[in-house]
Structures are given as C-alpha cells and as structure tokens.
Specification:
The protein has two domains: 175 residues, Alpha Horseshoe (Serine Threonine Protein Phosphatase 5, Tetratricopeptide repeat), CATH 1.25.40.10; 99 residues, Tetratricopeptide repeat domain (Serine Threonine Protein Phosphatase 5, Tetratricopeptide repeat, Alpha Horseshoe), CATH 1.25.40. The protein is built from 15 helices and no strands.
Amino acid sequence: MGSIEPSVRRAEIERARRKRPENLDAYDLYLRAMPHAHANTPVETDKALQLLARSIELQPDYVAAHGYAAWCYEQRYLRNGLDPTDRAAALNHADIALGINSDDPQAMSIGAFVRANLTRDYDAAIEVLDGALALNHNSALAFGFSALVGAHSELHQRAVEHAHKALRLSPLDDPLSYHPYCALALTHLFAGAYADAARYSALAVRANPGFSIPYAYLAASHVGLGNVEAAHSAAQRLIEVAPNFSVGGYVRTNLFRPYLMEALAAALQTAGLPE
C-alpha cells in the first residue's frame, strides 16, 4: 500500500476541500486510513477501521472519519458474512456523520450511500446526496456515490449522468474511480445493454483489481452476451479475489430490488459461481 499512499492522499485532499479537524493527529490517522478504505477488500478494510477508530477517539466529532468508518463497516458487513454487528456499526457511524454537521458534502455523501445500501431508503439517500452536491458541485466523490445509489435504485439517467460527471471531475490517480464505472456497469446490465455493461465492468476491474464485485458484473454481462467462456473466466477471477463468494451470500446482501437480484443471481449461476 505504501507505493500508492502519496497519490491517494493527494486525491483525497483535493477532493475533500474541507477544514482539517482541530486535532492534527486525528487528521493524520484519517489520511493513513484512506488507502486501506479505498482498496475495499476485507483485510484492508480492517486496517482502515483500526486507524479510523483511533482518529475518532482523538476527535469524536470528526465527521469525515465517521463517514469512512460507516462505509468500512458497510464493506465488512456485505463482504464478510453479513454480521449484524457490522451493520449496526455502519448505520451508527452514518447517523453520526449526518447528524454532527449537515454541511460536510463528503460525510453526507458517504452516510447517504451507506444508509441506502443497508436500508434501501433510496428517496432519503438521494435527498441527502442532492444536498451534498448543492454544497459542492465539483465533488467527484459525491457524484460517484450518487451514481451508485442511482444505479441500485434503477434511476438510470441519474446514474449515468452522475457517473460521467464523477469521471470528468476525478483526478487521474483517483482511487475511487471504480465507483462510477461500477455504476455504469450495473445500470447497463439492468437495462440489458450487455456489451456496454461488460466494457464498464472491465474498466472497474482495471481501476481496482482487488475489489470483487466488478467481476460479478463482468461475468453476468458476458452471460447476457452469450459469451460463456468469458463469463466463466470472470467468475474464476472473482473466486480468486474473494474465495468465499457465493451467489446465495450475494443475494442476501439485499442491495437491489428482489427481481433484479434474482436475475443477477441466475446469470452468476450460469457463469459457474457457487450457489
């Protein structure tokens, strides 16, 4: 992680454009957590949470740290066994991030995204995201999270528009560029535009090869295209990145409306992923 940490820090500082907390040690711990949080893998998520916990201990009202803690607990919940304790912690940190200060676009965006994924209250999340974007209409992070919520809730036009805005605003070394690519992949997958879905899935994989979910989108896209061999290849790569992945476990994340999840699950089974 050390080799990419400086560029991750620069991208985060440029994106956030917010005041540092009073406790600079808390700020340093937060910055050190960023590359681990952005990696979005179980091992790196745990490292991020350790650093964020220390940051919050030093400054309990640090909204950005609470926002990222919410996201990391959400990551751990969705990809490490659906432990209800992780879900509760994610929602608690999201509520703190949204409640302490209502004018921090970064904390608002992450908190809204986490709540959308865990409660599927899309309308409330979109209201918060719109507020964040009104405060900072140049935030790649906010547009990226907004695009994902749009994709998850079938607001296809919003997802596509906000994903492209996120990509235009992103620095070249933005560690979160895989977010808008995932949003575009999922939106096109749900719309049956499988060639575009495969293209954006591949771009998401390239942007973050360690994140498991784009491989699922890639496998499902190739199933839609009838490219069975390519679908099996993507499925194999997914298992290499996330050995414990199962279709049933993914369905239980409850990220999308049931009929969408059922269709995606059927495609993943066709790709050869374990039930």
